[in-house]
Structure formats: C-alpha cells, structure tokens
Amino acid sequence: MTTLFISDLHLCAERPHINALFTRFLDEVARDAKALYILGDLFEYWLGDDQLDHDPLARAVASQLANTAGRGTLVYFMHGNRDFLIGERFAKEACLTLLPDPWSIVLDDQRILLMHGDTLCTDDVAYQQFRAQVRAPLWQTNILGKSYTERSQLARTIRSRSDVEKSMKADAIMDVNAAAVAATLENYGYPVMIHGHTHRPAKHELSVNGHQCTRWVLPDWHDHGGYLSTGGPDHVLSAHSIQGVAAP
Predict the structure, then answer these.
(1) pLDDT score for 247
(2) Domain boundaries, position 82
(3) CATH number for the domain including 26?
C-alpha cells in the first residue's frame, strides 16, 4: 500500500482553489493509502485549537482528515512554522497523530527521517531566534491565554512583519544550510531525508562521510498540489504533481 508525504499547503479562505485541490487529493489519492504524513504548514496560520470554533475551513479540514482516517489511512501531522499551535483537540477531531520534529520511520526496510525543514535553515539567524521564542511553552501559554480576536490581530502583525523581512533577505539565507543537513544525516545514521518548508521541491543526492544520501524537498501548494509517495512493486519514493484550477 502507498504511503504519502505532503507539506506546505497553507490552506486558508483566500485560496479556495487549493482547499478544493486538497479535498480532491484526500478523496482520490489518499483514499486507499496506508499512511499520510503531513509535514507542517497545513494551514496558513493556526491561532489555537479554538480556531475550530471560529473558522469553517478549519472544521472542514478536520472532518475531511477524520473521514480519511475512517477509511483506514493512518494520518500523521508534524508542526510547521505557520501551524505550530495545533494541539490535541484538533488531533482528536481530525483523528490524526501528532509527531515531534524530527521523526524517524522505516518503510520497506528503508530508514526515513521526516522534518518540517525550518531547523535546517540555520543561516537565517533571526528566524531561528523567533522560532525558539514561539516554541517555548511559556510563550505559547501566554498567547493562548489571550482572546481569539487578540491572537488574530497579533498573527496579522507577525505575518506582515515576516513578509517585509523575507523581502529583504537573500534567497540563500532562507534555504537549508549544507552543514546542518550533513550533521543531521550523520546524527540519524544517514537515512533518506524528507522535508518541506523551503518551497524548493527537488531530489538531492549527496555524500556525507562516504555515505550516499538522498534528501527530498516537498513542494508547496501555491498554484497546484504535489506529494511524494512510496509503494508499488519496487517500493521506491517518487514525486507527483496534482494539477488543479488555476488561482483566480
């Protein structure tokens, strides 16, 4: 049976064509899959699990994932840099399992390391400092103690500031650091690596300490969808694109 890997869908009300494409993906591609791994940034933003009470899209996605799980597909989710506040309530309603970052699995005797990918972008020092701040339990407790309206306003401010900062950064700074990739592969015993975050889909072959390694970068779902799958007679990983209706 097929195992699927996706990331960086950035679902939101402003991009209905991608929301519809995700529905099609679940109905057509994931219907008979053994497992689906979502490696972060499923949503454009997540303000806390009470978003399920305020955002029809959030509730619809939770229901769709629960339906997918109900058909027998194991659904796993790893936090991204946009939806790191997803918690146990969403996990329960979506019938999925939350995974730490990174997470190792074995498929068909092949060791695979799953990551969102942002921790590999070590050249972006400002982002790494911000990431450490927002992943701290005390910070999250304080944020979740605010009203939903306050959190919405704060999220808009952070996203606006982030867009300005990204426009001023060199592209290379926002990509993975080669030394960080090599160190991670060495630390985990030279597995196949799969991650998203950078929006630079590719299959990279590299040598680390004499070991031949493969790093897959998952595509974002900006204009159309994409995923990685393993299965079939040869049990190899392969990349696929899902064409949908163009953005209006």
Answers:
(1) 42
(2) 3-242
(3) 3.60.21.50
